[in-house]
Amino acid sequence: MTASTPIHRAPDTPSARQALALAGVFQAASLVDELARTGQTDQRAWETLIRATLDTNPDSFEAIYGGHPNNLRRGLEVLEGVVGRQQVNPVVLRYGFLMLMLMNKLRTNDAMMDDLGTHLTRIQGQAEHFGETHENVIASLGEAYQETLSTLKARIVVQGDPSLLQSRMMPERVRAILLAGIRFALLWHQQGGRRWKLVFQRGALKKSLDQLG
């Protein structure tokens, strides 16, 4: 982390932490959609998600997303649309809620959790050698997703430009971001997030989003 991005303490409430974690899920959903349609995506949003996936033992909650809510700005904007009942890209919404569903299946599957942990430990060593966003690391993250979450019956089918989706490194990039979304979904659950709260505690979530600016 550079001196130009100091730690920005999040409001220390369960709903604020849930909002930030859920923003990570929807940021991943938004990036997957953008990659699949255009082949490009926002670098800051991308790097935030990849680093969060690799950091399995962060020093603080804020450290997970790089210390400043603006690193999750894309996801926060999607979440604000959901909470405010505004028009939100239905494909992005579908990806986000499918990630939450896959997370629920993963967290009750001890063998898969262990397998994913083994993958990530090995990939962390790669990241130290090559750099966190090197294509070897991205390829390994994609492989980890493919060998674990992709084996579940419920799967995320990504829509987009077929030629882009089949281009070099694109499947790996998409899977790496899907894995990042699952990582934030697990974080959301750990912070007390539940699907029913998105319906019945919408007001608390909106208040937290307003505080995050």
TrEMBL record:
Q: What is this protein called?
A: High frequency lysogenization protein HflD homolog
Q: Specify the taxonomic lineage.
A: Bacteria, Pseudomonadati, Pseudomonadota, Gammaproteobacteria, Oceanospirillales
Q: Which residues, by range, are in coiled-coil regions?
A: none
Keywords, alphabetical: Cell membrane, Cytoplasm, Membrane
Q: Is Nucleus one of the keywords UniProt gives this record?
A: no
The gene coding this protein: hflD
User: What is its membrane topology?
Assistant: Peripheral membrane protein
For this protein, the record's InterPro entries field holds: HflD (IPR007451), HflD-like_sf (IPR035932)
- Which SUPFAM superfamilies is this protein grouped with? YcfC-like
